[in-house]
Amino acid sequence: MMMTNHVLAPAGLLLPHTLLESNAFATLAAFVAINTVMYVALAVAKTLPKVYVTDWIRRNNERAEPRGIDPGAADSGPR
Which helix (H) or strand (E) holds 25? Predict the structure, then answer.
């Protein structure tokens, strides 16, 4: 059986406790948090399908019905 010894390290072992409580460190932590949230939002938005506003809003210069050779065609042509 392997025996392991757990050593308790004091708080602030890597950085001094005064640095962790400073305003500069809090500002840096807030910037990193906001940057992370923005990066995740952009990554999620990139994976979603593209939304075309023109599909939802009809402009004045578009015809209500297609006027091609085949009047029964649903698509009025390439975009």
Answer: helix 23-47
